[in-house]
Design a protein that fits this description.
Blueprint (H helix, E strand, L loop, with lengths): L2 E5 L7 H13 L44 H9 L3 E6 L5 H12 L8 E3 L10 E4 L2 H8 L4 E5 L11 E2 L2 H14 L1
Parallel strand pairs: 1-2, 1-4, 2-3, 4-5, 5-6
Bound molecules: magnesium ion.
């Protein structure tokens, strides 16, 4: 059975909407994910915010409030019937518990037992990675395996296959493993 490694933030769950809405509220701005042309969020916030944009990621309860991205849960349910699913996520110190709780709540059929916390996804055993972060996509691809990007403006400079949503990912996976 093939193993799919699936990222959490901005792939399964919508981190950016909640993160940006907290920043927009405090700094009276209109940041949204379509404005991020690269991974460095601090470049797109007001100067008085700067690196403090990352402090929001340490706010208790932030991760518990995230919504699943469209079709993520139903597609994961279907894929799990044919593939082993492992969720691979890097995490800030305070988010570990909340991410476990999120998976138990929204993805009980996967469960926290299949949740791997790591900053080195390229070292995890698995046949394919679905991620949005440029550094993860590049590192995983350099191991000779396939990394698929969830398409965002900030990862378009990375030369990997990309999909715009979960339904496209589902089709991609079925085609890819049928042909490989
Ligand atoms: Mg991510």
């Amino acid at each position: 059975m093939y193993t799919l490694l699936i990222d959490m933030d901005s792939v399964i769950c919508d981190l950016m909407t909640e993160w940006h809405s907290r920043y927009n509220r405090d700094y009276n701005d209109q940041l949204s994910v379509d404005k991020l042309k690269c991974w460095a969020s601090e470049k797109y916030v007001k100067q008085e915010c700067g690196d403090k944009i990352y402090d929001y990621l340490d706010e208790p309860g932030l991760f518990l409030q995230l919504e699943p991205l469209p079709h993520a849960i139903e597609v994961l349910k279907r894929l799990q019937q044919k593939y082993e699913i492992l969720i691979v996520t890097s995490s800030r110190t305070y988010a570990y518990t909340e991410k476990e709780q999120w998976v138990e709540k929204h993805l009980p059929f996967i469960g926290k037992r299949n949740l791997i916390f790591t900053h080195r996804k390229d070292k995890v055993n698995g046949d394919l990675l679905f991620d949005d972060a440029p550094h993860n996509l590049i590192a995983f691809q350099s191991t000779g395996r396939t990394a698929i990007a969830m398409d965002y403006p900030y990862n378009r400079t990375v030369d990997v296959p990309r999909v715009a949503n979960w339904l496209q990912f589902e089709t991609y996976v079925h085609t890819y493993f049928r042909e490989s």
